Amino acid sequence: MAETSSVQSLDRAFDLLELLCRSRSGMTIGALSAETGLHKSTVHRLLSSMCRRGFVQRDAATSIYRAGMHLCELSSYIVENLDVVDLARAPLERLNEKTGETVHLVMQEGCDIVYIHKVENTTGAIRMFSRIGMRRPLYCTGVGKAILATWPEDEVRALWRESEIRSWTVHTIVDEDAFLREMEQVRRKGYALDNEENELGVRCIAAAVVDYRGRASYAISVSAPISRMSDTRIAELRIPVLEVRDEVTAALGGGVRRR
Fold it and tell me: Which of 2, 35, 52, 202 shows a CA-CA span of 20 to 30 A to 87?
């Protein structure tokens, strides 16, 4: 019984922590209680414990709780310990220097991609909204589509149906048949595009980093404002993106895909 109670408390603490991580302005005990259905005394007890460990912070003036910076410290350790980041860092920096645009490395986790490395464009005034640790659905991102195109179609269909499909912009593909046609194009071309499907005004070209089976869990991309990403520019970026994709794939021991 004691073990069951401990696991239940842990689940409740994680529920609270996830809510606080997603909240821009923090939450009160009352709001957390209403959202989770937990009694206020239970919420207070769990928050107090997490505050002592630095996972949660409390504003004494407003009694508003926020996710603590200790989470950022731990997440940085996780990213640093990912071999793929170390192996990809130098090639991605060269891609950034060659293109002058923002370069990303992402990994697939469930129905989402997670940004695990970013080399920011330093020549322009516009910065990409992406940040390390940010999650986005696979179906509406160039990197996500590049990853999914390496999967069998039945698995792509299953993931589509598991995802919460919605329009992030007016350009997001929300029809399953249209999405499967998009997958065929990605497989044929060897790279994927995000045509303002995730963020208005931003376009990107992405390519999957495949393993020895030809299946991907990682992908790279070059992103820029649409004013700098015409079809001609996309065509120019194709070769350097695929070259770096091949370099990172080889470094990870994967099979290089044909262009």
Answer: 202
